[in-house]
Every structure is written in structure tokens, then in C-alpha cells.
Design goal:
CATH architecture: Orthogonal Bundle
Number of strands: 0
Radius of gyration: 32 Å
Order of helices and strands: HH
Distance between the termini: 38 Å
Largest sheet: none
Number of domains: 1
Strand content: under 5%
Structural class: mainly alpha
Length: 140
């Protein structure tokens, strides 16, 4: 009976770990989406600014310089975003690996519990059958 309680507790702990890893993975996927949206927004601003610069470079030299500085700032933002994206991808992969390992462990525990229950059922059937055979042989 103590083994039943221990395995049940271990299974509960594994359920909690799986939920934690799923929660972490969900937040990391949201972060990925947010970072990707930032990257796309920066790229669109760069494209718009480049188109604007090529059209108005001769007509308005003063605004050209300001827009050129803005473009440099966007390029710097894009460069600063790259390592953040890479770290987020590495962390997401690590969390996915942890989730997979936890799910495998949970499955192994569940299969162990099922096997133990099956073995208990068999042993009770065998012991009842053995008792009947013993009594039948005793009567002969």
C-alpha cells in the first residue's frame, strides 16, 4: 500500500512538472511572437524610410539627414534584437526538451502503475485458483 501512495505522489509531482514546463513553453512562445512582431515592425519601418529617403533626398536635404539618422537607429535596433531572438530560441528548445523528458518519465510511471495493477489482479486470480486446486487435491 505504501508503494501505491509513493507512486501516486510521484505521478502527481510529474503532472505538476509537466504543467510547469507547458506553462513555460507557452510564455516562451508568446515571447517569440512578440520579438518576431518587433522585428517585422522594425523591418517595415526601415523599408518605408529607405523608400522615403530615395524619393526626397534631393528635395529636402535637412529632413534627409534626420531620416538617415532614424534609419541608422532602426538598424541598431535590429542588430540588438538578434541576440535576444537567438537566446529566446535556445531557451525555448531547452524547455521543449525538458517537457519531452518529463512526459516520457510520466508515461513510464503510468505504465509502471498499470503493470503493477495488472500483476496484482493476476496474482489474486492465481492465488484463488491455487486455493481451489489445493482444496480439490486435498479432497481426493
Amino acid at each position: 500500500m505504501a508503494d501505491d501512495d509513493k507512486l501516486t505522489r510521484v505521478l502527481e509531482v510529474m503532472d505538476a512538472r509537466v504543467q510547469l514546463f507547458r506553462s513555460n513553453l507557452a510564455s516562451e512562445l508568446r515571447l517569440k511572437d512578440e520579438l518576431r512582431a518587433q522585428q517585422v515592425a522594425i523591418t517595415r519601418q526601415e523599408d518605408t524610410l529607405i523608400a522615403c529617403l530615395s524619393e526626397r533626398s534631393v528635395q529636402q536635404p535637412a529632413t534627409f539627414k534626420a531620416r538617415e539618422l532614424r534609419l541608422q537607429k532602426l538598424v541598431e535596433d535590429q542588430l540588438r534584437l538578434q541576440p535576444v531572438l537567438a537566446r529566446a530560441a535556445i531557451q525555448r528548445t531547452h524547455t521543449q526538451d525538458q517537457l519531452s523528458a518529463a512526459l516520457r518519465q510520466k508515461l513510464a510511471i503510468e505504465l509502471g502503475i498499470e503493470r503493477r495493477d495488472r500483476d496484482k489482479a493476476r496474482s489474486s486470480v492465481y492465488s484463488a485458483g491455487d486455493q481451489l486446486l489445493f482444496e480439490r487435491n486435498k479432497r481426493r
